[in-house]
Amino acid sequence: MAMYWSDRMGDEVQRGPRASYVPPHLRPNSPVDESRHRFHDDPYAFDSRFGRYSNSRQLGRVSVGPMGRGRGLGRGRGGRGWSQYHGFNRSVPETNSFDAVVEKFGEVEVLDEDGADNEDAINFNAYEDIPVESSGENVPPPVDTFEEIDLGKALNDNIKKCKYVKPTPVQRHAIPIAVAGRDLMACAQTGSGKTAAFCFPIICGILSGESNGMVMPRDARVACPTGLILSPTRELSCQIHGEVKKFAYQTGLKAVVVYGGAPIVQQFRNIEKGVDILVATPGRLVDMIERDRVSLKKIKYLALDEADRMLDMGFEHQIRKIVQQMDMPPPGSRQTMLFSATFPDEIQKLASDFLSNYIFLSVGRVGSSTDLISQKVEHVEDMDKRNRLMDLLQSQRASGKNGKHSLTLVFVETKRGADSLESWLASNGFPATAIHGDKVQLERERALRSFKSGATPIMVATDVASRGLDIPHVSLVINFDMPRAIDDYVHRIGRTGRAGKHGEATAFFNDSNLPIARALVTLMQEAKQEVPAWLKECAGKSSHSPGDGGGGGGRSNRHRGGSKFGGYDYRSDAANVGHSISSSHHHYVDPRSYVNPYSTGSYVAVPYSAPYVADPGFYPNHYGYAATCSGESVPENGWD
Ligand SMILES: Nc1ncnc2c1ncn2[C@@H]1O[C@H](COP(=O)(O)OP(=O)(O)OP(=O)(O)O)[C@@H](O)[C@H]1O
User: Fold this and answer.
1) Which of 264, 279, 424, 521 is 20 to 30 A (C-alpha) from 32?
2) Distance (Å, whole) CA 174 – CA 247
């Protein structure tokens, strides 16, 4: 696992036993701005409050640290700047490293608003005309700046230090909704900043003292977090944990991550010291709850990242157990947020069990990751794939696009296939590593670290790496084996072209992939990609419609054909929800006069009826194929 600067900070903060755990808002000198409580009293009290923190000059460059222009702290998740910063941290003597980090954080340069001279800056122009649709009752309006939302000084300071100059579209819409206390189901493209969209409201909510004043006695062995963030893979949980720690820096708020494959005893020790926000993979969390080491009775904020995957058959059983059968407060008594880049209708329907009077938000053509990813599909027979891969890698190398700042991620279908391709590449002079679910956790972490650092600029992966991972400098994603479901394709290619940057994705397609052809053509056309004539012909031959929800590329929310939004509130076909539509230009329509221009009017939501199969090793899942916990011949679908 990559070491984050904030991990280091966490180590320092955790040093020594804690006599008793006191939540941040009850501690002396809490950075909480008392006036923020009012926000929760009146969730829609935006107007009078906007502008209070507004200070556009803060967006300008405020100081230049010793690390030079924009190189001190990169943006998020193991970005270049963060790791450089970590490098700095290592050179600081052990005794005062924490102070030194604090000091350095204070010196960090804040980007110019346009971020023009920093290659790590998010390219906001890429998101200018993004379509946004929201539905539900009384949708709080979007904001243009972070300062407009009353996130509190400590969090706003950290946002600046993270170089988040302005919110991305999903943040502009989702954060005000969540800060207003509303339940939310949000769809937005890969790499568009969903993590911060659920982290900021949770941090802000806990700091504002809505957390029931939980105080753990000295000998408490049961951790009672206030916020819970669930994600499907260990690596993603670690990544989210790193983000939470950065955003919650110096707030006194404690975030802990628990996940499978790592020693549980160490994780027990971590939670015993107190935890405000727990980031977890479902399996390990259930284990800890069953051992009476974690209680969910104080949960006020629940976020499911990659929510459609979490509610798919592979995880649904565990998620229902956690959310409905343990001691978690029911919907309405907690705030629930579900985020993903893809949200099939039937999964939305399942998800609504966890939500109360929620808002559905769809930002952009879900899954197409805007037009930032240039997609190519080549017809390659299985026996020719290795040679074609070699050609691609060689031409990358020839154009100087191979190395530390140009990483290539190659997706394959099986764990064995990943190992075999890794060795073949290495024996042919291409430094590669592999990640999949049969590797022990240490090997997985080592592989990811080696890839991120550029030591092995090629990583062969199964779907365990397809969701959520934010790896800077991935410039090419190759679908060596096509996934069976279009949503998996969307997440895989989304490992490039993130945060407004451009990326490339190449897929090897042959007759065995015919079932996905039509969905692929639709997706590419929506993303304004050139579709080869032969692929269109394949789509014509494909027996599955793009919206059949079955094995044929299963993307049930594409049933509407003409829809420009991949994400769609299933309720709008079935029930009378207040509806509002907006664009990035804040065009709101009176809910009473709203007619959904994208609805064909003929769709009726199909009840989800897939049976739960008792054998834990075998579940048929939404994506139309069987998945087992260890089977080699069966594609891995990225569970943990
Ligand atoms: N407002 C912002 N300003 C600058 N950078 C940002 C901002 N919001 C997010 N980022 C950066 O953009 C990158 C992508 O964000 P994030 O990983 O949250 O995307 P995501 O939508 O969750 O993607 P995925 O669907 O793949 O999980 C991260 O490196 C993050 O630090």
Assistant:
1) 279
2) 17
* ipTM of the complex as predicted: 0.99
277-280 and 227-230 strand pairing: parallel
**Are domains 124-209+220-363 and 373-541 of this chain identical in fold?**
yes
The span from the CA of 284 to the CA of 509, in Å, is: 37
- Across residues 544-556, what is the average pLDDT? 44
Domain ranges of the chain: 124-209+220-363, 373-541
- Residue with CA at minimum distance from ligand 1 atom 8: 193
Q: Are 522 and 546 in contact (CB under 8 A)?
A: yes
Q: How confident is the model at residue 163 (pLDDT cuts 50, 70, 90)?
A: very high
Structure confidence by residue, pLDDT tens digits, 580-636: 444 333 332 222 222 222 222 222 222 222 322 222 333 334 443 333 333 333 445
Reference 380, options 478, 250, 457; nearest CA is 478
Which residue is closest in CA terms to ligand 1's atom 25?
190
Question: Distance between CA 472 and CA 480 in Å, rounded?
Answer: 21
- Regarding the beta carbon of 190 and ligand 1, being less than 6 Å apart is answered yes
Pocket test for ligand 1, best of 77, 110, 122 (most atoms within 8 A of CB): 122
- Which pLDDT tens digit goes with each residue over 40-62? 333 333 233 222 223 332 322 22
How confident is the model at residue 281, as a pLDDT? Answer: 97
In contact, 24 and 152? CB cutoff 8 Å = no
- Percent of the chain predicted with pLDDT > 90: 53
Instruction: Tell me the CA–centroid distance for residue 192 and ligand 1, in Å.
Output: 5
- C-alpha 570 to ligand 1 mean position (Å): 26
Question: Could you give the 3-state DSSP secondary structure of residue 563?
Answer: coil
Cα 74 to Cα 70, 82, 84, 117, 445, distances in angstroms: 7, 5, 8, 13, 21
Q: Tell me the CATH number for domain 373-541.
A: 3.40.50.300
Residue 499 near ligand 1, beta carbon < 6 Å: yes
- In angstroms, what CA-CA distances link 149 with 45, 56, 155? 11, 14, 11
The top-level CATH class assigned to 124-209+220-363 is alpha beta
Q: From the CB of 25, is ligand 1 less than 6 Å away?
A: no
- Average pLDDT, stretch 540-546? 64
Q: Is the Cβ–Cβ distance between 568 and 362 less than 8 Å? A: yes
- Rounded to the nearest angstrom, the distance between the alpha carbon of 196 and the centre of ligand 1 is 7
| Ligand 1 contacts CB of residue 168 (under 6 A) | yes
* Assigned token pair, 23: 């939540």
Predicted pLDDT of residue 282: 96
453: burial class by Cβ within 10 Å (0-12, 13-18, 19+)? middle
pLDDT score of 434: 97
CA-CA distance, 67 to 358, in Å (whole number)? 44
Ligand 1: residue whose CA is nearest its atom 30: 76
Give the torsion sign (CA, 485, 458, 75, 639): positive
Residue labelled with tokens 């509303």: 182
Task: Over range 545-559, report the average pLDDT.
Answer: 42
